[in-house]
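Tutorial handout. Part one gives the primary structure; part two gives the three-dimensional structure as tokens.
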Amino acid sequence: MTLDSLLTKSHRFLAASPRYSFIHRELNKRASPVSDLLSATCHLVGSQAWHDYSTQNESLYEEVKKKLSLVMLNPPMDNTDLWAMLILSTWSLGPVTSGHFIDSWLLSGSTMLYSLLSYGFSSHNTIGSFDPQDQITRDRMLAWNASALVHLKSVSQEMQSNQG
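Part two.
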């Protein structure tokens, strides 16, 4: 896959995910893909949002699952890997031809856990100890909040499906 192709798919991701401005900012300031996992994840979201499915997406999806499992073995994680987890838990990405997908409920909870490990949030760090002018801290708080909201949504959906 060429760099131009990945950037086109990333721009599709930007259009499909207006709430993730902290990820957009990072994608826009780089000329090359941020990370393999994040780039592939953005590619999949862009394809899903624009209904541009292909057999290449199936192999890319399998590659994303493999990279995700490897990344999750080594906490703490980089922001880009946590953001890929957040994106994967927000969109139930999966190949169109099969019913296999990464469970949003499990991944969103894992994203919150890995965020705690990676960002150094603890009971000793209160909101007052964070510098609101620091862009990195703000991005981490936005990612944490988004992870919590995605997890709440997936728990709600899981509870509804169990009742029906």
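Part three, for discussion. DSSP finds seven helices and no strands in the chain. Helices lie at 3-16, 21-28, 36-49, 55-71, 79-90, 104-119, 135-163.
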